[in-house]
Amino acid sequence: MSWLVTGGAGYIGAHVVRAVKDAGIAPVVIDDLSSGHASFVPEGVPFVEGTILDRDLLIATLREHEVEGVIHVAGFKYAGVSVRRPLHTYAQNVEGTRVVLEAMADAGVTNIVFSSSAAVYGTPDVALVTEDLPKHPASPYGESKLIGEWLLRDQATATADGEAPLRHTSLRYFNVVGSGDATLYDTSPHNLFPIVFEKLLAGETPQIYGDDYNTPDGTNVRDYVHVADIAAAHVVAAQRLAAGEPIEAAYNLGSQNGLSVREIMDAMARVTGIDFTPGIGPRRPGDPDRIVATGELAARDLDWRNRYSVDEMVRTGWEARRAAS
């Protein structure tokens, strides 16, 4: 038996694939390479190039590889861009998830781990985000992830009394950073780490947007979690589902404490050896002072913990990016 990783050629998905493989589970990858890279798929891992919107392709893949569960990572993950491209975001994230669930039902596959997002919470006015906090997504991206969770919930309800009830869980997280493999790095043009790395490699000065927030150093505080820890949690969730063990509908993969943007910049200078003083720009609209999630439930059930310091997050990401140059 195997597990299908949708989006398994992307930054996060490729780490999940390696974690699945290391756990002794056979991974299968489907990815349309819109933001992923075929070179990120390990040698020997079956790779299907195609979109999750192709129901027939999904069904054929699930059946051919005798898939027992899906780790659904594929999606359009750019919150800011989603405001300008809502229809594309909903097509990829809502319709895509619906088609995945439909294909699973047709192929008799009953387990799914959904890579959701802490964007479902929007900009909550609390110091620590817990799973039961009201959901007020602030972008089409956040809305699409919340709807994805609803689709899982509703399909589980619909199949509860049938021969193949759906078992599911959703993993919510904020900023994924670092690298767990020197051949994998974040290629997103919208995430903080790759933005800073590209600036430094180009001899330019990175910028902080606002230094007058109500935080200890004036810059906003966020959850930053290492991609290898994220991948490991997905695997444990898959194992719990496959074993029929109790599992929550959703988990926050949070750092509990968070890091400020200035702390990230200081670590960037310290680890890379490039001495720079970041520029200070105006605040970006809608940026709250602090958003940090608890990871208590995930620690209890998914062996979730932060195994990397901020310097290690920067070092692993920087080494992987430099190796790709």
UniProtKB/TrEMBL annotation:
It catalyses: UDP-alpha-D-glucose = UDP-alpha-D-galactose. Its EC number is 5.1.3.2. InterPro entries: Epimerase_deHydtase, NAD(P)-bd_dom_sf, UDP_G4E. Pathway: Carbohydrate metabolism; galactose metabolism. It comes from Microbacterium lacticum. This is UDP-glucose 4-epimerase. Gene3D superfamilies: NAD(P)-binding Rossmann-like Domain (3.40.50.720), UDP-galactose 4-epimerase, domain 1 (3.90.25.10). Its cofactor is NAD(+). Belongs to the NAD(P)-dependent epimerase/dehydratase family. It is an enzyme of class 5 (isomerase). The keyword Isomerase applies. Keywords: Carbohydrate metabolism, Isomerase, NAD. Residues 3-254 form the NAD-dependent epimerase/dehydratase domain. NCBIfam families: galE (TIGR01179). GO terms for molecular function: UDP-glucose 4-epimerase activity. It holds the Pfam family Epimerase. The keyword Aminoacyl-tRNA synthetase does not apply. GO terms for biological process: galactose catabolic process via UDP-galactose, Leloir pathway. It comes from the Bacteria.
